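Hi Y.,

Following your request, here is the sequence exactly as I used it, all 262 residues.
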Amino acid sequence: MHKIAAILFFLILLTRPAAAEDLAQPGALQKGARQQVTRVIDGDTVLLADKTRVRLVGIQAPKLPLGRKGFRQWPLSPQSKKALSDLVLNRFVTLYYGGRSRDRYDRALAHLFRDDGLWVQGEMLTSGMARVYSFADNRAMIDQMMQREQDARHHNRGIWALDYYRPKDQAVADRHRNSFQVVTGTVRAVAHIRGAWYLNFGDDWREDFTIVIKAKAARLFDKSNIPPGNYKGKKIEARGWLKSYNGPMIEATHPEQIMIIE
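Below is the corresponding structure, written out as tokens. Let me know if you'd prefer a different format.
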């Protein structure tokens, strides 16, 4: 009987919603205010009763126009907003911080946890209604978020059922400039020039996809025991805004933007 009871207790622990204290490593998150959500602006932004606007740090939901002239709505953006509304609208949440606490628009950059322990970012990722979107000054919880995203991708949930959001092979990266993308490919060469690292994916670095890691960011890679030079020959997945710099380019400001596939 004792053995059965122990097994049942373990299963309960696995299936119950994880509380903030369970998910956060000691010192990783700092507890903030508890407030009621009075409005959901889109799939990753809410307004609280005290008029604080909160950007759900670490995730990016499909974007709505929100009054921006000429802005083209991303697929599944209304569904993402509804998913977040179902989770938090008119409910109380507690804000937790794991890095920079405000952005240039004076929005709070926080993880949200409901009173029942549900981690809002984690739920949006698990349902496929958002993807991981991290910054060098806000890196807490990225591993847990990536696990949630990978599960959603594996099951083609939400945005991951659409080609619009699926990872793009580096060979076609040029078609997707000026957008946030997840790009896959094998690093064929690595160059270290004036403190910056360049991960090249093709024969011609002037035209092919490249990842740039500047000197300051390279120190973060080194501290994480992932020297940029070690990526040579590795098949990787990189995420970030795809820009133009001698061909399509993603600047990696922190190591969590790059995942080794094989």
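The domain at 13-160 is CATH 2.40.50.90 (OB fold (Dihydrolipoamide Acetyltransferase, E2P)).

Thanks again,
Q.
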